[in-house]
Amino acid sequence: MGRRLLAWYRKHKRDLPWRRTKDPYRIWISEIMLQQTRVAAVLPYYARFLELFPDVQALARAPEHTLLAAWAGLGYYSRARNVQKAAKQIVELGEFPRTYSSLRELPGVGEYTAAAVASIAFGLPHAVMDGNVARVLSRVTAEGGDIRSERVRKRLRGLAQLLLDPKQPGDFNQALMELGATVCVPKRPLCETCPVRMHCEARKQGLEHQLPVRGAQGSADQREKKLLVIEKGGAVVFWQRTAESSRLAEFWELPEREQLPHAKVTGYAGVFRHTIVNTTYLVEVSRATLRSLPSGFRWLAKSSLQDIPVSTTAKKALAIYSRSK
Q1: Model confidence over 47-66: pLDDT tens digits?
Q2: Active site residue 150
Q3: In the CATH hierarchy, which top-level class contains the domain 2-204?
Q4: In which residue ranges of the chain is pLDDT below 70?
Q5: Could you tell me the residue ranges of all domains in the chain?
């Protein structure tokens, strides 16, 4: 299985920028960005991020607002703060951690990220376990248990480690992930093009569309939000979350209607949906005017918004507002 998988990977792997380097810093940044985020979404951010912060020293000394502005739109902003904490820790150490255990000590680095960086950057024999790998291995072994249970995840991690090619651990890990991302996909696996189909028990048993088994998740929470865009002289009214905020700390937001009850709504701009984890917001955007600016709000020049951390919700609302004018 291993030889076939590696041969397939060398021929069919996507040309991704983090696969063209052995620099542990660049590999680490890519892995942090890819946590719960699609490759297509990460690509433009990765290039811009490395232009701004080309090495761990530049990242460690960057002002937080500059870092958050560069990360804005990727979501899960604790990742950005953790990556800077880790950068400062690495600078204090004097070198990038080169072992799995030392990588695990960095803020924001869990089992998967440590294994990925250790294997890809340093050639260490640590198997990765992400959603793609779990799906591939659950089908290969016809695993009938709930893939979300720790018992099943532990069994699959052990299998991944057993299958790992110790001479090419980085390529092997990436090959398994690539297979899950491009061939052994969730709903309609492309079994006829799979390099390991002859080893797949799910395919032999006709279960490739039923596996993996996933336990029931709670239904998504749905909420409504009404945002106001108040513009004057090329500036827009915003408010800023506090540093202690549990979500999007220090990010700038557009005001909601209830925050400015004396604002005069002058027109409807549009509506959009925005999902954060298990909560889906139906966001209504309206144009409005305001006689005087209450405490806690600020006029921000539209030209400055790219240089400060603005929430994705606010960016989407401004885009809808611009199209409606």
Answers
A1: 999 999 999 999 999 999 99
A2: no
A3: mainly alpha
A4: 216-220, 277
A5: 2-204, 221-324
